[in-house]
Amino acid sequence: MAKVAVYNMEGKEVDTIELSDAIFGVEVNEHLVHMAVLQQLANNRQGTQKAKTRSEVRGGGRKPWRQKGTGHARQGSTRAPQWTGGGMVFAPVPRDYSFKLNKKEKRAALKSVLTSKVAESKFVVVDELKMDEIKTKKFVEVMNNLKANKALVVLNEMDTNVIASASNIPTVKTTQTNELNVFDVLKYDTVVATKAAVATIEEVYA
């Protein structure tokens, strides 16, 4: 089991905990991580792009000139793709880009990225994150104390003061254990998790 330090909001080490090898000590599967990121990005796509083919563009029903004798190339419609104002060849149509991954594959990918963060010493555990009021400046100080500038902050439960204090910081994102995903873990340099959040992750994803 990997041992990591537990810090307080002032950045001082107050304890150590052992992380479960079932979550934070697995063999990294890069293929599943790649597929999990692709799935999340694909599922976020709206798929509403649309352009008209030659059969959908208004007008062009009349043949612009006779077939022979004009010196021009033969044309059957002014809405053919080579004409200005014509339809598009192989025009995009609304579609669903999403695809599915098995639950076990998703969990294995998440375990892989969490293991990578621990191995790189980019997984920081704090005893608790509590704020009496919404104060962005104070939250920035906490992140600086933890030496986590570009960070994903994982909370065990919704804390309005913490979430609101972090919302204006472009390099910080807050999430809860039930919303933890591979893309966010990879996007941010450091994962900052409360001690309670770590316990929940080990319980849920074991």
Automatic annotation (TrEMBL):
Gene3D superfamilies referenced in this protein's UniProt entry, alphabetically: 3.40.1370.10
Asked if the Swiss-Prot or TrEMBL record annotates the protein with the keyword rRNA-binding, the reply is: yes
User: Is Ribosomal protein among this UniProt entry's keywords?
Assistant: yes
Protein name as it appears in the record: Large ribosomal subunit protein uL4
UniProt KW keywords: Ribonucleoprotein, Ribosomal protein, RNA-binding, rRNA-binding
Q: Which NCBIfam families match?
A: rplD_bact
Family classification? Belongs to the universal ribosomal protein uL4 family.
User: What is the protein's species of origin?
Assistant: Roseburia porci
Region: Disordered, residue numbers: 44-85
The protein's GO terms of the molecular function aspect are: rRNA binding; structural constituent of ribosome
